[in-house]
């Protein structure tokens, strides 16, 4: 299975924590999705996508995820997300992948703020506390690395 990730799961430490194993660096292939913007969720440190006809969000496509991996990713994302097929751009062409779509109507934490979300800012400012908060929910114990 192949998924497009645009937020905390781009971070290899977070991905390893959630699925319980480290993926090789080449498993994270650059890609982008159009028609959306990435905003920080209100009162949270993670992002949500919002419709934006002129928007383009960079992320990664991860291939080769097992059914077990996807089950763990679903547990991580929670009831406020559903998996939908979406076209993303990779290497100058469109491919169809799965994306976790936020459903603010199911989870009030998923309402976007006005603040944009960037991975490097999150890693510098929020990652350590975020990992400490999420780690007890998962059995994976990856080595922590600084961005």
Commentary on this structure:
This protein has 147 residues and is an alpha+beta fold. The protein has one domain: Roll (Hypothetical upf0131 protein ytfp), CATH 3.10.490.10. The protein has four helices and six strands. A six-stranded mixed β-sheet has the order 4-5-1-3-2-6, with no helix packed on it. A hairpin with a 2-residue loop joins strand 4 (81-90) and strand 5 (93-102).
Order of helices and strands: EHEEHEEEHH
Helix content: 10-25%
Q: What spatial order of strands do you see in the largest sheet?
A: 4-5-1-3-2-6
Would you tell me the structural class of the helices and strands?
A: alpha+beta
What is the C-level CATH assignment? Alpha Beta
What's the CATH architecture? Roll
State the domain count.
Answer: 1
Percentage of residues in strands: 35-45%
Q: Segments where pLDDT lies below 50 for 5+ residues?
A: 141-147
Q: Determine the N-to-C terminus distance.
A: 27 Å
Q: Tell me about the biggest sheet?
A: 6 strands, mixed
Shape: globular
Mean pLDDT: 90
Number of strands: 6
Query: Which value, in Å, is the CA radius of gyration?
Result: 14 Å
């Amino acid at each position: 299975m192949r998924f497009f990730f645009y937020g905390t799961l781009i971070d290899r430490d977070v991905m390893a924590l959630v699925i319980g194993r480290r993926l090789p660096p080449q498993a994270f292939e650059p890609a982008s999705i159009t028609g959306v913007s990435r905003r920080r969720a209100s009162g949270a440190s993670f992002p949500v996508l919002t419709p934006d006809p002129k928007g383009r969000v960079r992320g990664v496509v991860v291939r080769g995820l097992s059914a077990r991996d996807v089950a763990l990713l679903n547990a991580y994302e929670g009831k406020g997300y559903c998996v939908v097929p979406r076209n993303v751009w990779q290497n100058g062409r469109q491919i169809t992948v799965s994306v976790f779509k936020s459903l603010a109507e199911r989870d009030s934490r998923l309402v976007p703020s006005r603040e944009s979300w960037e991975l490097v800012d999150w890693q510098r400012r929020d990652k350590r506390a975020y990992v400490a908060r999420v780690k007890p929910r998962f059995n994976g114990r990856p080595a922590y690395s600084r961005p």
